[in-house]
DNA sequence: CCTCCACCGGAACGTGAGGAGT
DNA sequence: ACTCCTCACGTTCCGGTGGAGG
């Protein structure tokens, strides 16, 4: 009987999410039919790529823009349309998308491209030349235009720009097919590191994607929310608030969408019938906390110890404490963990770094007769931060220490 | 008004890892 | 295999300082 009721619950939740109609729409990876405020850029790209439909070689394109400005989604969109259109008109177009953060070497890029034409290329073992000619033959076997999209192309260049050089010259070795390259990057300085020959050929055309402003973000969120959420669950100010938060950062649409989706998730978990501005604030907090947690996890051990000392002091009831106090507890911690003790000079630097990251608050104050120091307070929740810190195996011995403080408090 | 605390923070230097060049 | 260079991380040394208390 119990099982029966439980599966009813699953059934209920599966079929009728009270909040979401289709959550995938609210992910930044989803490609919608319409891309608001990118008409100009899409038009530009299409204008360049249309040459492919006439059987000519389109110019290579370099696309700039910060994260979350819609570069990838726009290029993919134009690519899809082009492929579909070209098939109907008899001028075949092949669009290949590669994310260079994943495929980050010459060999892998070529192998991936060749596999697109159903070639069997082993993960490793072949000489790169052979993979190159395999790809060349495959592509040249028909009269067609191939468009290669290299996303995050700056990642590829870090390991040598030979591949870009080869690809940009491949047209002179082909008889039937034509190749054009679209590079996408968010690193504006990346061109400087490039071989001049590659630079001029890759950057025949350049398109810039500016960040979105709050109103544009609002349009994007509104458009997605109509299919993403059930009708009427969003309170009136929710979308404005999400876009305002995201716009005040970098105009990052990815952030805005995350914020909206997480707000919905929180509302859903609460069992609320609709999403309120309060949920957005909670979501902003959650996202921020996740970010901070990530930062803390990747801190160097010494910084973790310093932070741990600060949290201990905080838990012992001190509201503000000084560099000296932190340093003293830090020294004790180092002893009990068996890690070298750094000098106070160095620790002040670490404290400043933690301050910069927004994990602690440190301001210099003068206490007159009693010297001049930094007043420090912790600005993250101590319990959860402590457990994140204890995940580090080098800090394991401190678990006892933590419970010791706990008992002393009682 | 002067003193003097308890630290701040700049400068120069040491060290070892990792990359480029040859 | 070798040197050379850079870079991050730390140390040593030390001049500097806001303001409570005398």
Please tell me about this protein's structure.
This protein folds into three domains: 39-209, P-loop containing nucleotide triphosphate hydrolases (Rossmann fold), CATH 3.40.50.300; 213-295, Orthogonal Bundle (Helicase, Ruva Protein, domain 3); 299-409, Winged helix-like DNA-binding domain superfamily/Winged helix DNA-binding domain (Arc Repressor Mutant, subunit A), CATH 1.10.10.10. It is built from 17 helices and eight strands. The chain has helices spanning 2-15, 39-49, 71-89, 106-115, 128-140, 153-157, 162-169, 196-202, 214-228, 238-249, 253-270, 277-297, 301-315, 323-337, 344-356, 382-390, 398-409; strands spanning 61-65, 93-99, 145-151, 178-185, 205-209, 321-322, 360-366, 372-378. A hairpin with a 5-residue loop joins strand 7 (360-366) and strand 8 (372-378). Helix 11 (253-270) crosses helix 12 (277-297). The longest helix is centred in the last third of the chain and has 21 residues, at 277-297. The protein is globular, with a radius of gyration of 28 Å. The mean pLDDT is 85.
